[in-house]
């Protein structure tokens, strides 16, 4: 071995005696006595794990998991400093109940794994459960991870907690019903009051029959479904849920008071994955599409726009793998895809994401620039976003493209005009006396609150229509209140001001 590769190396980590021949070629004879699989847990080599016996599965403890493990410890010289206890240690991961380095090492272990975790003094922090005497440069912890209970903070704020009390079959999360599926569960619901009142039990109140429901359709409380999606078949979990993810935003049972925190004990009996479209003929695929689309329309009518959008987008993703075989199938396919895009656009409008609604409409118009319904829906999105000129262009374009759409376009233009008049009315109220003020007071006047605007300027909230219905139903039910934040200061107060100043050959008010 050349000198620069052994002890003459610039940063050689091993020192040699002064009379050692560091500057000559050396011949090394090496016999490997043993080796082990190791994992470097910390980059500075302060925590290293030597694997003795492989564990089961791939899941490792994480924050809030409840861990059960046999633990002993030796000093670097082999002296025992933590003997074997009569019972394994129980601790909550992430709560600093054991030294930091030991917890870091256990965080890389699978169930039933046996390992030696080498921890240097910088990672031997004080802990409530295991105390290591000071003065040790390194400690070797022998650990057997007996079991851990999965505890998940579903929202990240400690309000919705899922605690697994009985393991299911399969590997987490690959064998969980992450996709929309038909689920079968038994559950018992309790109020988190002093009496812990049981308000429903499928085994007692449903003739012993389990609850069957399709996920992704808003058929159970949101917190319930979020947790079931992360369960394995046969698993039993206890869910602690706050009111806003339980029954305050869902049809509440008569014996559950408003604002109630609840606990569900859920057993996932099994689930059926959605039908695979591979091998289906075109007509069968369209039948499946119609079922999903009908569910999406129901969710839209119920005001569950996020869930409805997810249904439409699911079909659009599947459409990437559908290949029509003739012109007739191609026409049906394109019409269906366009309708789904427009349904997504309608969801975005109801969710207040008007720019995304415009972008979704453009996906239809890129392929068919004269698609009247897409132009109408884009015009409504422009109007709701306060882009009045763009909206006017779309509504006028409808009339020139299709005379039959003229009543709907005129109705939309009338609403647009009404909105502009209402905004001008607000502008006059805001600008009244503005120019009598000193220059330094103008900005203050412009920032006065508009909370006391006339009630007649607020549009009534309409009932959510079916997104597939015609333009007329859309026109009669769209809430056209424009969010002020989407407009500039002058445009918000005086929408027609730009047109007036443009008529005088000026693009802005020189006074302001």
Automatic annotation (TrEMBL):
Q: State the Gene Ontology terms under molecular function.
A: peptidyl-prolyl cis-trans isomerase activity
Q: Which InterPro entries match?
A: FKBP4/5/8-like, PPIase_dom_sf, PPIase_FKBP_dom, TPR-like_helical_dom_sf, TPR_2, TPR_rpt
Cite the entry's keywords alphabetically: Acetylation, Cytoplasm, Cytoskeleton, Isomerase, Methylation, Microtubule, Mitochondrion, Nucleus, Phosphoprotein, Repeat, Rotamase, TPR repeat
**Catalytic EC class:** isomerase
Q: What is its EC number?
A: 5.2.1.8
Each TPR repeat, start to end: 338-371, 372-405
Q: Where is the signal peptide?
A: none
Q: Which SMART domains match?
A: TPR
Domain PPIase FKBP-type: where? 64-149, 180-272
Q: Which reaction does it catalyse?
A: [protein]-peptidylproline (omega=180) = [protein]-peptidylproline (omega=0)
Q: Where is this region: Disordered?
A: 430-481
| Compartment(s) where it occurs, according to its Swiss-Prot or TrEMBL record | Cytoplasm, Cytoskeleton; Cytoplasm, Cytosol; Mitochondrion; Nucleus
Please indicate if the UniProt record lists RNA-binding as a keyword: no
Q: Which GO terms describe its cellular component?
A: cytosol; microtubule; mitochondrion; nucleus
- PANTHER family to which the protein is assigned, alphabetical: PEPTIDYLPROLYL ISOMERASE
Q: What is this protein called?
A: peptidylprolyl isomerase
Q: What species is this protein from?
A: Dendrobium catenatum
Question: Which gene is this protein's source?
Answer: PAS1
